From TrEMBL, chains A, B:
InterPro entries in the record: Metal_resp_DNA-bind_regulator, Tscrpt_reg_PadR_N, WH-like_DNA-bd_sf, WH_DNA-bd_sf
UniProt-listed Pfam families: PadR (PF03551)
Occurrences of domain Transcription regulator PadR N-terminal (ranges): 9-81
Protein name listed in UniProt: PadR family transcriptional regulator
Length: 174, 174
DNA sequence: GTCGAAATAATCATACGTGACTATACACGT
DNA sequence: ACGTGTATAGTCACGTATGATTATTTCGAC
């Protein structure tokens, strides 16, 4: 998890030098669908990256506004970025996709309630699918699009599985 | 994340009162495919649950062995369990399935390497799929089986997506 | 001109998760 | 009887992530 967050921050700095607020704004506004990293976390990651020599800090003053720390990726940081990127793409640690533990104990609920809750979940998945398909394409085959398509594919799969499972539970109850 | 872990521990205590070591052993040996929670984490969760009045502790001494803390779920704990269970089944917070951030930046690699890394990932997914299909069935339609089937479905979907994407990248490169 | 809301830019206290470590008891070979 | 590996049962120090908070500036409404 940590590595993915560092990768995200380094990736944004690969595009251009930025200050903390800018990074957070970008994540909030454009990547809300992709990362749930919080402001304070981004700042602490920037600090860590700086201590590791992966980014450099310079201070900027604009008008009367408070000082800002501008972060710039270093050559060492670019190497680190590629390292993390390769690891991220090539690995599949994939333990427990969130929400899976609950299924283990579903027998503690009666069939009717289980079905109702699964339907609720399916609706939420569907709603989320809707949000994602509204995200505009960035261009042909950019990584960002790939990433979005990946999420859509997984969510669609989740939705299908829920539909099948609900059917099964309904049948069994009879 | 925290909630899912609490749910897991409470769920195990719903089946029977247990001491910490027993819980950890069970998770390690039987749920390695389902949860990556570590020993120390389980102990700290038990402590928290105890402080919240969701489990009670009693001390047991068996022969000359060191004392053991036996944890028993309380009525309040059972309510909490159901609460967490319902929430877990009905929600779909699903932000960033691990490994997705990497795709965003895949353009920083050349096509050939990207394909190679995706193939590596696919192999790992496939290997993991193999492991999961070896897990013995617990019985007909128990939650545990449902949970495993869910993971298999998602992994299969991931594998298919990777295969499609690799094809696409190959085509594009030409 | 002034008052409150929103934007800007961050820090801090706190809780959570985990690798490393501690410590005892038993089994087994030699 | 002695070492030594493994099972038992847990604690602790440390790093990470985040909600809450701080502090200043700009802007629009009145």
């Amino acid at each position: 998890m940590t590595d993915e967050r560092e990768l995200l921050v380094l990736g944004l700095l690969m595009a251009q030098s930025q200050h903390g607020y800018q990074i957070n704004e970008f994540i909030e506004k454009n990547l809300g669908q992709v990362s749930d990293m919080k402001k304070a976390t981004a700042y602490s990651i920037l600090k860590r990256l700086n201590q590791g020599g992966f980014v450099e800090v310079s201070v900027e003053q604009e008008g009367n506004r408070p000082q800002r720390q501008i972060y710039t990726i270093t050559p060492s940081g670019e190497r680190r970025f590629l390292e993390l990127l390769r690891a991220s793409i090539a690995t599949a640690d994939n333990v427990t996709p969130a929400g899976n533990i609950g299924f283990m104990f579903i027998d503690h609920l009666n069939g009717q309630e289980a079905v109702k809750l699964l339907e609720e979940k399916m609706q939420k998945v569907d709603h989320f699918l809707g949000m994602l398909s509204l995200v505009p394409q960035h261009g042909h085959g950019t990584g960002v699009d790939l990433s979005i398509k990946h999420r859509i594919a997984l969510l669609q799969c989740e939705k299908d599985w829920l539909a099948r499972t609900i059917q099964e539970l309904r049948t069994r109850k009879t």
